[in-house]
Amino acid sequence: MSMQADGRNVIDNKKSDIAISVKNLHKSFNLPTEHAGGLKQAFFNRLKGIKGYREQKVLRGISFDIKKGDFIGIVGRNGSGKSTLLKILAGIYYPGKGKITINGSLVPFIELGVGFNPELTGRENVYMNGALLGFSNKEMETMYDDIWEFAELKDFQDQKLKNYSSGMQVRLAFSIAIRAKGDILLLDEVLAVGDAAFQQKCNDYFESLRDKKQTVILVTHSMENVTRFCNRAILLNDGKIEIDGKPKEVAKQYTKMLLG
Amino acid sequence: MNIPKVWNRKNRILLKELTKTDFKLRYQGSVLGYMWALLRPLMMFAIMYIVFAKLLKIGNDIPHYAVYLLCGTSMWSFFTECTSQGIQAIITRGDLLRKISFPKYIVVVSSTLTAVINMLINLLVIIIFALINGVTPSWSWLLVPFSLLELYLLSLGISFLLGSINVKYRDVTSIWDVLVQALFYAIPIIYPISMVSQTSEIAAKFLLLNPIAQSIQDIRYNLITTETVTIWNYLDNHAVIIIPFLIVITVLTFGALTFRKRSRYFAEEV
Questions:
Q1: A156 in a domain, yes or no?
Q2: A234-258: per-residue pLDDT in tens?
Q3: Most buried residue, A62, A210, B44, B91, by most Cβ within 10 Å?
Q4: Which residue from A7, A117, A136 is facing B13, i.e. has the nearest CB?
């Protein structure tokens, strides 16, 4: 077992059927109370004995285990802590209290097209984005044509990205993203991309993930997707787990909460 | 934190790609493109040469003063470019930090590597000018990379240290800008050190203890003319010579440690 610099324990235990284990996870942010972004303000705050920030508790004691092959939906209202949880699992935020164990390699998609630069061409952006996913130039070359094929943007390869429509950008990003291979995939709201035809492709992709028993954690607002792809769902409310169980029950509870 | 892990394949790919992108973007949209990497130091040099060597008549006692000046200004721009890019790196790459998990030092190193590439281009120009000026190639040229490395490590240390404070307190950028201006005049780049030593020996010796001054003078000595005043031939007390190197090691160690400690919260704070 090795403790990473980002506060997670990463192991590679083929025998264990647990993919992710989270125990009593807490996280809070220090939000500046007034504009405390400068040295001057920090100095005066210290003089006056003011902290200059307020502690916002985002996660308050979350525990769950995810089995290999699970397709888990994480749902909840805005500000319930879904994205924070995902970012901690991804190693982007440092956990406050608690223990996180990741068994195997984990590929996070917090957003599509991370590192995309409007001033670079589509081609250059593909290589850049691939590098962020851990692909070398050589590996990118072998899947290069497939990426453009899937995105249906072959004619735009050498155009600067700023000349793409936002829908085209997302399609390109999605085409790169689905090349990533990992034991566990973390997906944040990336289902809703493109037009109806492209949406169908995305759904096919998620179905293929489900069918080949890929471990996936999906953060979403769409109850339709939760009931369609997931075999388990977790509803977060105010930084705590409200309910953890069958997608249908969770969806029902969520709808009740929204109306409630 | 062990070295093989930090220097693994994934991180190497990322570092390479980020550096390439940084360099590309720098000259994106300009007609002359990469040529600016060459033109900028040459123009800087032309201005300084006219003002200092021709109008103010400084440095007539140093052979190859023009190349000597070019060398100094290029190395100085290397230092300023390296630090200003390095200090800003975490903020300019904030978008990446919030979206993916990777060792944060990579963005600092990649942004300073652009400055390294520019410096190497400049070095080529300096060597060509030196040869035209009648400087004879010598074995001492092989010592130049060590001084360049020293200057780079110092810049990296400063970038790590100030860059990690800059994430929370953006004032650092402005303070550093002013400091760099002041530092420029405290280093014998456009004036020969003899100008200082005429007034005060002690002050001149003190100025040379600055690792930037020491490394630039060493580069000039080894590359252009042995008439350059360096800590090795100017300071009698040889124990003191260790000071600039100690400064570099201290800044780098302290910078790296601070950066490592602060880096876990960059994604939240940036």
A1: no
A2: 999 999 999 999 999 999 999 998 8
A3: A62
A4: A136
